[in-house]
Design a protein that fits this description.
Blueprint: E1 2-13, E2 16-27, E3 31-35, H1 42-49, E4 57-62, E5 65-66, H2 72-77, E6 80-83, H3 95-102, H4 109-122, H5 124-128, H6 139-151, E7 157-161, H7 169-184, E8 188-193, H8 196-202, E9 205-210, E10 213-219, H9 220-224, H10 227-233
Parallel strand pairs: 3-8, 3-9, 6-7, 7-8
Antiparallel strand pairs: 1-2, 1-4, 4-5, 9-10
Helix pairs in contact: 3-6
The structure holds adenosine-5'-triphosphate.
Adenosine-5'-triphosphate (ATP) binds at residues 13, 16, 18, 36, 38-44, 194.
Length: 235
């Protein structure tokens, strides 16, 4: 079943068109990746889905409903979690407090506790550092915290913007393994990456975006073996 559908999305920053007639489908249970070079429009696509950028035209169909006119917080409450580029955790708050912030809309204390335990199952490191201030954590730990915080709201769709950025290769491996694990447990994931090789390896399907337009779409493995993609993104 289609969970999210972008239909003919056109987004602008002032007079500059960042997204041109974007069509993307994300099916339930999939990892879909969006790859492309710097400035191609990857982050803008996620921001458009989460309501931070309002498209001039086009539709965002989520669970059968057009959510394009909703505000960011309403879209989040519908179950779309956005982990932005650069993590943006609360640096003065502890790990525990950061996670609690992710569940701000949840009233049930037991549910909050259960979700926190689930986050700790994925990221044992966070449990070890439960009282540490977010800002003093390593880049990889902050990324784990940002993903953990997103999980606290119990999303149906998890959108990750460049989770591998600035991390050591071994940490990148760990993060990608966790993304796969989350997906195996049923989470639908939309993954934006410059690290095309790793993203395509774990993705069911991928979209290639270039100067605001979708250039190619296909299965992760098919795209990985495509000569043009190899030259442009996997060199
Ligand atoms: P990167 O990996 O560098 O973030 P990206 O593929 O995510 O690249 P976007 O950040 O979506 O690209 O940017 C798409 C285009 O929109 C670029 O030309 C960029 O300069 C422009 N852009 C992005 N944010 C703004 C903004 N706040 N104001 C004006 N232009 C912007």
């Amino acid at each position: 079943m289609t969970l999210l559908q972008l239909k003919e999305i056109n987004s602008f920053y002032g007079g500059i068109q960042a997204l041109k007639n974007i069509n993307i489908d994300v099916n339930e249970g999939e990892i879909v990746t969006l790859i492309g070079s710097n400035g191609a429009g990857k982050s803008t696509t996620l921001k458009t889905i989460s309501g931070q950028v309002k498209p001039k035209t086009g539709e965002l169909i989520y669970k059968g409903e057009n959510i394009v006119k909703l505000q960011s917080h309403e879209i989040a409450l519908k179950g779309i979690a956005h982990v932005p580029e650069g993590r943006r955790i609360f640096s003065k708050l502890t790990v525990k407090e950061n996670l609690e912030m992710g569940a701000f809309s949840v009233k049930d204390k037991k549910l909050i506790a259960a979700r926190m335990e689930m986050a700790f199952d994925y990221f044992p490191r966070l449990k070890e550092r439960i009282n540490q201030k977010g800002g003093t954590m390593s880049g990889g730990e902050q990324q784990m915290l940002a993903i953990g915080r997103a999980l606290m709201m119990g999303p149906s769709l998890l959108m990750l913007d460049e989770p591998s950025m600035g991390l050591a290769p071994i940490i990148v491996e760990q993060i990608f393994e966790i993304i796969e694990q989350l997906n195996k447990q049923g989470m639908t994931i939309l993954l934006v990456e410059q690290n095309a090789y790793q993203a395509l390896q774990i993705a069911h399907r991928g979209y290639v975006i270039q100067t605001g337009e979708i250039q190619m779409v296909g299965e992760g493995k098919t795209l990985m073996n495509n000569e043009e993609i190899k030259k442009a993104y996997l060199a």
